[in-house]
């Protein structure tokens, strides 16, 4: 994805719509449209001025890449952004689960006293040996 080559420090308050429009060579109405259809959600100042954070600008860069370079319409962009958010959430869940499993493995290896079947999610009893006499 193409990024605008500007050095920005992490802003707490945000950038005003005119600065964002100029930075990305957009008309302010385009930014308002993106907000109206739910693609961007800038915060508001006490005076109700739109303030775009760094994360808003990152999202805008994705939107602009999809529209300018890939020709995706607004409905397609909404679907893609929703899928990206779901994928990011799934990634966080997988990382959390992997971390939990690793911690449990380490804990089990350190204890060394418990038999694996004692801590199993599903207990498995050893098979019974049946002797057959001929």
The average pLDDT value, as a whole number, equals: 86
Major beta-sheet overview: 3 strands, antiparallel
Assign an overall shape: elongated
* Poorly predicted spans: 5-11
The neighbouring-strand order within the major sheet is: 1-3-2
Q: Count every beta strand, where a strand is a DSSP E run of 2 or more residues.
A: 3
Compute the CA-based radius of gyration: 27 Å
Which structural category fits the helices and strands? mainly alpha
The arrangement of helices and strands along the chain is EHHEEHH
Architecture of the largest domain in CATH?
A: Orthogonal Bundle
Helix content: 40-55%
User: DSSP helix count?
Assistant: 4
Query: Which CATH first-tier class of the largest domain would you pick?
Result: Mainly Alpha
Describe this structure in words.
The chain has helices at residues 17-23, 28-36, 54-69, 74-111, and strands at 15-16, 43-44, 50-52. It contains 4 helices and 3 strands. The chain folds into 2 domains: 1-72, Multidrug-efflux Transporter Regulator, Chain: A, Domain 2 (Orthogonal Bundle), CATH 1.10.1660.10; 83-134. Strands 1-3-2 form a 3-stranded antiparallel sheet. The model is unreliable at 5-11 (pLDDT under 50). Helix content is 52%, strand content 5%. The protein has 134 residues and is mainly α.
Short description:
By secondary structure, this protein is mostly helical. The chain has two domains: about 70 residues, Multidrug-efflux Transporter Regulator, Chain: A, Domain 2; about 50 residues.
């Amino acid at each position: 994805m193409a990024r605008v080559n500007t050095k920005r420090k992490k802003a707490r308050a945000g950038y005003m719509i005119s600065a964002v429009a100029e930075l990305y060579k957009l008309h302010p109405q385009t930014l308002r449209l993106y907000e109206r259809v739910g693609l961007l959600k800038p915060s508001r100042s006490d005076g109700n001025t739109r303030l775009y954070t760094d994360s808003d600008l990152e999202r805008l860069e994705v939107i602009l890449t999809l529209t300018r370079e890939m020709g995706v319409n607004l409905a397609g962009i909404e679907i893609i952004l929703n899928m990206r958010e779901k994928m990011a959430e799934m990634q966080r869940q997988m990382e959390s689960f992997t971390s939990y499993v690793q911690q449990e493995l380490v804990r089990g290896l350190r204890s060394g006293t418990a038999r694996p079947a004692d801590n199993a999610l599903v207990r498995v009893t050893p098979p019974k040996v049946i002797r057959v006499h001929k």
